[in-house]
Write a structure and sequence with these properties.
Structural class: mainly alpha
Strand content: under 5%
Strand order of the largest sheet: 1-2
Distance between the termini: 34 Å
Order of helices and strands: HHHHHHEHHHEHHHH
Helix content: 55-70%
Largest sheet: 2 strands, parallel
Number of helices: 13
Radius of gyration: 18 Å
Shape: globular
Number of strands: 2
Length: about 290
């Protein structure tokens, strides 16, 4: 599953070791399963996602093999179920035409579909520091912001506009048609997305020191390779209408070598609370 759908994560998983890589793949398989439902064309997607959410809360509810496998993993390594249900909440939001109003709404969505995965990954990686959740949420948010910047055209074709209206108030239909009047404003909004992601990447990079040593290098590789997507997009002058960008194998190798520098021991400061100002009440937020 990782090799087919998550090439950046698959590359990073080589550095985890067999046990953690296997658990990471099990978590990714569940996340991919619900994401494929959310983005697929099968009927009754909304109801299916709601059923999965209920089966996470109440194991007595009939669940498919993917959900059962995830619940077994959650029980093994103490994954917080509220992180998984909030992930489903984010997927449910995508079942209707999406038009984000402002930055706060954007960040709450990113927490739902990716920050929650960061929380779950902390358990996969045997992290013993609860405050690591704060930084893991930041990595998830940063990666999701990068995703949104990379997939603007693809999302617009599905009726989704994650760029806040306060930045560029165009409909998904206008963006999908790459109408000339919205090219430059949406490019400027793309730059804002990546600048915002950069704040969360910087925070996440600090928190990686809280992970077990074996996991640090792998997660740093995943962070820097995913961050590179935004750098490549910047090289294109934020030309979002040219389709999604990729990071080549040679570039991944160079980035991986550079990540050795990040293994130097550093003191982890307190998490910058302003990054989570819009996330009050959500899974993993403000826990010490």
């Amino acid at each position: 599953v990782l090799a087919k759908h998550g090439k950046s994560f698959y590359w990073a998983s080589f550095f985890l070791g067999k046990e953690m890589a296997e658990r990471a793949a099990r978590l990714y398989e569940f996340c991919r399963f619900v994401d494929d439902i959310a983005d697929g064309d099968l009927p009754h997607r909304h109801e299916t996602l709601e059923d999965i959410s209920q089966s996470l809360i109440n194991p007595q509810v009939a669940a498919g093999s993917e959900v059962t496998a995830f619940l077994e993993l959650a029980n093994e390594i103490n994954i917080p179920i509220n992180a998984a249900t909030e992930l489903l909440d984010g997927m449910l939001l995508d079942q209707q035409p999406t038009a984000v109003d402002d930055e706060a709404e954007l960040l709450r969505y990113c927490h739902a579909v990716a920050g929650t995965v960061g929380i779950m990954m902390c358990r996969v990686l045997n992290c013993q520091h609860l405050r690591a959740d704060q930084f893991a949420i930041d990595l998830g948010i940063a990666m999701q912001l990068t995703n949104i910047a990379r997939d603007i055209l693809e999302d617009a074709n599905m009726g989704r506009r994650y760029i806040p209206a306060s930045w560029a108030n165009y409909s998904a239909n206008e963006i999908a048609k790459t109408e000339s009047h919205c090219l430059k404003p949406v490019s400027e909004a793309t730059e804002k997305l990546l600048n915002l992601a950069e704040k969360y990447y910087r925070s996440a990079l600090l928190g990686i020191q809280l992970l077990p040593f074996r996991a640090r290098f792998s997660i740093t590789v995943a962070l820097r390779i995913y961050r590179q997507i935004g750098i490549v997009l910047k090289r294109r002058n934020y030309a979002w209408w040219k389709g999604r960008v990729i990071v080549g194998k040679a570039e991944k190798l160079l980035i991986s070598l550079y990540c050795l520098i990040d293994l130097r021991p550093k003191k982890v400061p307190q998490h910058h609370s302003a990054l989570h100002q819009s996330l009050e009440g959500l899974a993993g937020v403000n826990e010490k």
